[in-house]
Design goal:
The chain has helices spanning 2-27, 34-39, 46-56, 62-74, 88-123, 128-142, 145-159, 171-201, 204-211, 216-253, 259-268, 272-300; strands at 80-81, 86-87. It is mainly α. Helices cover 78% and strands 1% of the residues. The relative contact order is 0.14. The protein has two domains: 2-88, no CATH class; 95-300, MetI-like (MetI-like fold). It starts with a helix and ends in a 7-residue tail after the last helix. A two-stranded antiparallel sheet has the order 1-2. The protein is built from twelve helices and two strands, in the order H-H-H-H-E-E-H-H-H-H-H-H-H-H. A hairpin with a 4-residue loop joins strand 1 (80-81) and strand 2.
Amino acid sequence: MLTYVGRRSIAIVVLAFGISILVFLIIRLIPGDPAATLLGTNAGDPEMIERLRRQLGLDQPIYVQYMQWITNVVRGNFGYSFGYQRTVTSLVAANLPATVQLTLAALTVSVIFGTILGAIAALKRNRAADTVCMSVALAFMSIPSFWLGLLLILLFAVTLPWFQVVGGTSLHGLVLPAATLALGTIGFNARFVRSSLIQAQSQKHVLTARAKGLTRARVFLKHVARNALLPIVTVVGLQVGHLLSGTVVVETVFSRPGLGRLMVQAILAKDYFTVQAVVLIIAVTYAVVNFLVDLLYPVLDPRIAHR
């Protein structure tokens, strides 16, 4: 087990460095000169542009820029945002709690309601309830999050003034953004839970338990649900990345503070250091969450032993 944890930890570090290289290179493919963007109305002065480029380190070879940046990142310094006139680390620290709050709320809603829909569909397989649940799940999966967010604002914040038009960080302002982010993954969870439960129900030990006269509820809880839990946990871990990326759209639609909205504003302002920091944090978080999910496997199923 310790050997497995060590290997995965090394793999995460290597993955993080690989992601940092890709982010560093891709962000520099965005058209436009960040120095000219930051200068605004003074961008017509070539001398001022060149001076700012030297100040930002953009006049150095790209490999030198990367080595300087990644060395500072390892030390906890993501650079300085000239657009916001503050360090990137302080920007991330100010916006990270709101994104974590939104992601956890959406994940909780998605898991609970997706599991309920999927379980009902599996227990009522090929019946009217199954058709209704899967139709609802498919509808949720097909709705774009930006359109759904605007629709929820129009319905529950304008027509029915139950919630704030602009989502804040309070519990009252969290409802609509969390619902927008969660609805798409509810449909995916429901379909996956249904297929996992149906597959678990067809196992021989489940048929044996039924033949012994165990009640339907006992068979479902002890034999079906337990065996279907492992793939469901895997999918939930994978969805963390989807939810984190979804915050970019949801936080922008609801004008909600967070890493997603910060990244959009940084891209428009050609704020390299901020974009690199946000993308790197989201990618590493996704990798760490799936690493923790892997560690849960032996706990959920003792037959699995990592070597």
